[in-house]
């Protein structure tokens, strides 16, 4: 592990581990075609939801158009040209990550990881239609998360100690930069595997730093500095606490880091300094189990609790404290989620049910259920983007 290490300055007491809280949700999956399958003429251009199913026989992205009321209509199934994968011990979250499907709004590209074939697929996005442009090696083993900023793209690989690999985007295609590879040296071989692999890679909003969450494999948040040319620092600044499980992450309106911790079952808010050091600002428990994913719109945050089948709603006040507003039930195995750019709708994957639950977001942060949409071969799948 890198030598620059320090402890979280404030924490809440540990709750129930993800491995325990998700183990009861096994549901069999069925096979479907891996080629692009048109369903109906496309409408509502620009309003779409894309869902990755992580199908082992052939990974797929299912495209849905969304109506003005938030309801979804399946349009097509697109094969990624790669295979999905399943981490040992996982049931509702086969990749055990956030950000496995990522939209690059500037270039109108969608990136999908193919964990079972160690590749990344690049799709061009036109409304609710996808056009596969490229399949490229991920630069490691079992890619689980991808992030983009400008012409730089980084992929997080989960197995063999974990690693990150950087790419340049040129003319709509990725080009691997060998010098932008860093081994993470995590304890990814421990049991259960899915709680010890890294959780997410993400650029900070201004693009000058790269954040990696390591879950139980490192019990840490790791921050790499990037030069203007994109070169990574050789070692990250590491903020660690024994037993912590930093998983999914997002940023608030002031660019503070907000992390879901699956053992603390809380959202932790950090201020990141220019040198990569973090200061804990707030720790807000959900009161639920297996809090591992988080999404945000404005001052409202939504944490997914896989062990409780709920979404916990938070409001962030002027002091950067998260105030818990309550819990909203979902289908079995609440995992990754995405919010539409206008902040009106929340779409939540339920890995046990193999579906997407759609909610309207009200100004006070409350949610109204709209519909549940089955995802072909969606049990255990992760990766969702709402446009």
Verbal overview:
- This protein has 387 residues and is an all-beta fold.
- Helix content is 1%, strand content 48%.
- The strands form seven sheets. The protein has a five-stranded mixed β-sheet, with no helix packed on it.
- It starts with a strand and ends with a strand.
- Mean pLDDT is 90; it is low at 1-44.
Task: For the structure shown, list the relevant keywords.
disordered N terminus, 5-stranded mixed beta sheet, 1 helix, 30 strands, 387 residues, single chain
Please specify the SSE layout and strand pairing.
Layout: E1 5-6, H1 18-21, E2 37-38, E3 48-52, E4 60-66, E5 72-79, E6 101-104, E7 109-114, E8 119-126, E9 129-137, E10 143-149, E11 152-157, E12 163-170, E13 173-183, E14 200-203, E15 209-213, E16 220-225, E17 237-240, E18 246-251, E19 257-261, E20 266-272, E21 278-285, E22 291-297, E23 300-305, E24 310-316, E25 322-329, E26 334-339, E27 345-350, E28 355-361, E29 367-374, E30 384-386
Shape call? globular
Instruction: Provide the spatial order of strands within the biggest beta sheet.
Output: 1-17-16-15-14
Mean pLDDT: 90
Distance between the termini: 38 Å
| Weakly predicted, low-confidence segments | 1-44
From the alpha carbons, calculate the radius of gyration and give it in angstroms: 19 Å
Percent range of helical residues: under 10%
Number of strands: 30
Helix tally equals: 1
Estimate the strand proportion: over 45%
